[in-house]
Design brief:
Layout (H helix, E strand, L loop, with lengths): L4 E5 L6 E4 L3 E4 L4 E3 L6 E2 L14 H11 L5 H11 L4 E5 L5 H6 L4 E6 L2 H10 L3 E5 L12 E7 L5 H7 E12 L5 H7 L16 E15 L2 H9 L9 H5 L7 E14 L2
Parallel strand pairs: 5-8, 6-7, 6-9, 7-8, 9-10
Antiparallel strand pairs: 1-2, 2-3, 3-4, 10-12, 11-12
Helix pairs in contact: 1-7
């Protein structure tokens, strides 16, 4: 029997894995079962017992909000820069809103530390391969992908350099200073701007920086709440401050993103 090699490597021994019907297995016998949705959990046992990544509430809020197209201009711009016919890792892919778009013309791999997010992504996008895994220890072989996408996710430049082919590209999206500022003005007594993006990365040359700026009109309390719940602010905000949003039925919000394309130097 000819075994099909998986794109993912074993997180235990770093050997290649073989894609069996219901699992991945490496040459040393480490085995990882496929979930019914089709994804693989390659995150090694969590000794702390703490939850990893975004929970179901944040994943559902993000899916509800993004599916209404509010971030479509950002997705389109990144897709335009990415192009076609690449092997791509979407690192910190979340619930798959961006991944599903890029997978239309590329070979997509998606990883996220949140099992809830990956489960949602695997349901959404059937033409990509997903795994629960850490960006700090990406289960991919050296020099195995043409591009890495990193949208509002933790940075891991050394791992990105390791898995990118020579001349490979890293495309990032980061919030700019006034991103969601109007939302903060409602919630906080002393709202603060985001720090300016830091663009330089060791081992990479900056090819381009594209600013994507526009305003959206949220016309329902449901959309305002979904936007807030999908941000890191939600769990850091008191119940009293959260209540301020519930009185609103509409809100104009600034969206500001810096999309940076890097080239691996060596």
């Amino acid at each position: 029997m000819i075994l099909k090699t998986s794109a993912f490597i074993c997180p235990v021994c770093k050997n290649k894995t073989f894609d069996l019907e219901n699992s991945l297995r490496c040459m040393l016998g480490h085995s990882f079962d496929k979930a019914k949705e089709g994804y693989i959990n390659l995150l090694l046992k969590n000794a702390s017992g703490k939850r990893h990544g975004d929970d179901k509430l944040m994943v559902n809020a993000r899916k509800s909000f993004l599916d209404k197209g509010y971030y479509a201009p950002l997705r389109e711009k990144i897709g335009e820069i990415l192009g076609e016919n690449n092997v791509v890792l979407d690192s910190g892919c979340g619930e798959g809103y961006y991944t599903s778009h890029f997978a239309e013309n590329n070979t997509l791999l998606g990883i996220d530390i949140s099992k809830d997010a990956i489960k949602s992504a695997a349901k959404r996008c059937k033409n990509a391969t997903f795994a629960v895994a850490s960006i700090a220890q990406i289960p991919l072989a050296d020099k195995s992908v043409d591009a890495v996408i990193n949208i509002f996710a933790p940075d891991s430049p050394n791992e990105f350099l390791r898995i990118l082919k020579k001349g490979g590209r890293l495309i990032t999206a980061t919030p700019m200073e006034h991103h969601l500022f109007e939302l903060k003005e409602v919630v906080y007594n002393n709202p603060y701007k985001n720090p300016p993006p830091v663009y330089e990365k060791d081992g990479f040359t900056i090819k381009s920086v594209t600013e994507v700026k526009y305003k959206i009109n949220l016309e329902s309390a449901e959309d305002i709440e979904a936007l807030f719940k999908m941000t890191p602010y939600y769990y850091k905000t008191s119940a009293a401050d959260q209540e301020k949003l519930k009185s609103l039925s509409s809100l104009e919000v600034s969206l500001e993103f810096a999309v940076t394309e890097y080239i691996k130097e060596k």
